[in-house]
Specification:
Elements: H1 2-21, H2 31-34, E1 36-45, H3 48-53, E2 61-66, E3 72-80, E4 83-93, E5 99-103, E6 110-118, E7 123-132, E8 135-144, H4 151-163, E9 171-173, H5 179-182
Antiparallel strand pairs: 1-2, 1-8, 1-9, 2-3, 3-4, 4-5, 5-6, 6-7, 7-8
């Protein structure tokens, strides 16, 4: 019996590792070209917080910069009620260019971040596997240099999200907001 249990656990672990490896990363990733201002156009997730807050979500502005040690500082500003809230995250580079890790100081969750595809000047598709004590979830973000993207890019985001196991009610094209614009963001 213990050997069977170990075998099952081993297969489960292998499946988890395979799922993380199955998320592609941008070929010839060039981190310096990813820096600058981005707008979050699309967000897909199977997490509980997304399901609870989906109806409140709006487009946000994200500034990506490289730190002295080669990591990414990601600063997102989004509307919350009648004010703008800013959240800073430090994405630590891994041995694979285009892949980063992040641990949330607030929730203790571990994030395995993949820059899946980008042309650096128009859009970036980013997928994140999130693990915490209560379980795991997937999040896909579509960033744009402008507040609008072509229907083809939106469809690419939707299709990729579905390929990650997300359903249509877990995929959202974020509505624009005037609140962060009036704040100069």
């Amino acid at each position: 019996m213990p050997a069977t249990l170990l075998g099952i656990l081993g297969l489960a672990l292998l499946g988890t590792l395979h799922a993380q490896d199955s998320i592609p990363v941008q070929a010839d990733f060039q981190q310096d070209k990813l820096t600058g201002r981005w707008y979050s156009i699309g967000l897909a997730s199977n997490s509980n917080w997304f399901k609870e807050k989906r109806h409140l979500m709006k487009m946000c502005t994200t500034i990506i910069s490289t730190t002295a040690d080669g990591n990414l500082e990601v600063t997102s500003t989004y509307p919350k009620g009648d004010q703008c809230v800013t959240r800073n995250s430090l994405y630590t580079k891994t041995e694979q260019p285009g892949r980063f890790s992040y641990t949330s100081p607030r929730w203790g969750s571990k994030h395995n971040i993949h820059v899946v595809e980008t042309n650096y000047e128009e859009y970036a598709l980013v997928a994140t596997q999130i693990s915490k004590s209560t379980g795991s979830s997937t999040m896909v973000l579509l960033y744009s240099r402008t507040k609008e993207l072509s229907p083809e890019r939106l469809e690419m985001f939707t299709q990729f999200s579905r390929e990650q196991g997300l359903t249509d009610d877990e995929i959202l094209i974020l509505p624009q907001t005037g609140e962060t614009e009036s704040a100069g963001i």
